[in-house]
Amino acid sequence: MAGMMHYSLSAHWLAISLLLYILAGVCWIPVVWLQIKVKQMAEFALANKQPLPQRYYQFMRCWFWLGWPAFIAVLIIFYLMTFKVVVV
Question: Is 36 inside a domain boundary?
């Protein structure tokens, strides 16, 4: 799309956006796995009327901290794509 709009693919704002997109993806890949495991632990605890295991809370802490860089990266990507900031 950048090419269709006649933006240089070497523009700094585009390169930074792509790097941030990769960062967000790298953060969210383990988050998906963590969410599946947390769901399984919660279902098991509910079915067996047991408290959530300590590992559940460890996984949720990792999930939380992986979410922040991904979320911030997406906000910056949105800003760069919207305003096409020229970074020198």
Answer: yes
- The 3-state DSSP class for residue 85 equals coil
- Residue 38 belongs to some domain of the structure: yes
Q: Please tell me the total count of domains within the chain.
A: 1
How far, CA to CA in Å, does 62 sit from each of 25, 34, 37, 43, 51? 15, 8, 12, 19, 20
Q: Is residue 54 part of a domain?
A: yes
Is residue 72, in this structure, part of any structural domain at all?
A: yes
Q: Which of 36-45, 52-61, 73-82 has the lowest mean pLDDT?
A: 73-82
The pLDDT of residue 57 is above 80: yes
The letter for the amino acid at 29 is I
Look up the domain containing 50 and give its range.
25-82
pLDDT at position 2 = 66
Q: On the CB side of 21, how many CA atoms lie within 13 Å of its CA?
A: 11
